[in-house]
């Protein structure tokens, strides 16, 4: 009984010291609750979270708990435990979020080769609402003669020098035509 009272008094003193900015008191308080921290660490598995991450998070939560704890209300141990468990659950929820499931199920190429895994037979290619050939027809109908030549240069069908000589334009004019072409391509093909 006497040991418990001493422990509670020392815990309250440590909390007061933490509120006054004593870092050593924080380390001592975390050491007091080391079994609780280890228990929570063993109950909740978070991918890519090692022991040092748990220790650091527990120390941050212990500090925040000590700062916000009212010594006249309740027990610090249950308050800290609740905050630590809530944090662990938040980490697990974050880790298990639906949009991250693909990452969990992915396998590196080295592992796939080592285990002789074959690619899936299913096609994951999305079918555009408007076929690409129609989009290209719409794009080419919007292009000027100069922009069409800029497209042919970009595709490597004709040489830049040939277009400049044939149309009697400068490199700057052709460069501007390429910029307009790129803008029209974004508008037509991506929208």
From TrEMBL:
Keywords: DNA-directed RNA polymerase, Transcription. It comes from the Bacteria. One of its GO terms (biological process) is DNA-templated transcription initiation. GO terms for cellular component: DNA-directed RNA polymerase complex. InterPro entries: RNA_pol_sigma_r2 (IPR013325). One of its GO terms (molecular function) is DNA-binding transcription factor activity. This is DNA-directed RNA polymerase sigma factor, sigma H.
């Amino acid at each position: 009984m006497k040991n418990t009272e001493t422990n509670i008094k020392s815990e309250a003193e440590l909390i007061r010291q933490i509120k006054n900015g004593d870092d050593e008191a924080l380390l001592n308080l975390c050491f007091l609750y080391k079994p609780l921290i280890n228990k929570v660490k063993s109950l909740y598995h978070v991918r890519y979270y090692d022991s040092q991450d748990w220790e650091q998070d527990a120390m941050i939560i212990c500090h925040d708990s000590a700062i916000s704890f009212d010594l006249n209300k309740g027990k610090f141990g249950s308050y800290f435990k609740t905050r630590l468990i809530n944090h662990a659950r938040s980490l697990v929820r974050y880790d298990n979020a639906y949009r991250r499931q693909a990452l969990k199920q992915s396998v590196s190429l080295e592992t796939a080769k080592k285990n002789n895994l074959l690619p899936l037979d299913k096609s994951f290619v999305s079918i555009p609402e408007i076929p690409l050939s129609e989009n290209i027809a719409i794009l080419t109908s919007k292009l000027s003669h100069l922009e069409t030549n800029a497209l042919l240069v970009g595709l490597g069908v004709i040489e830049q020098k040939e277009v400049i000589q044939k149309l009697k334009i400068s490199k700057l004019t052709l460069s501007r035509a390429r910029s307009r072409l790129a803008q029209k391509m974004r508008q037509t093909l991506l929208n």
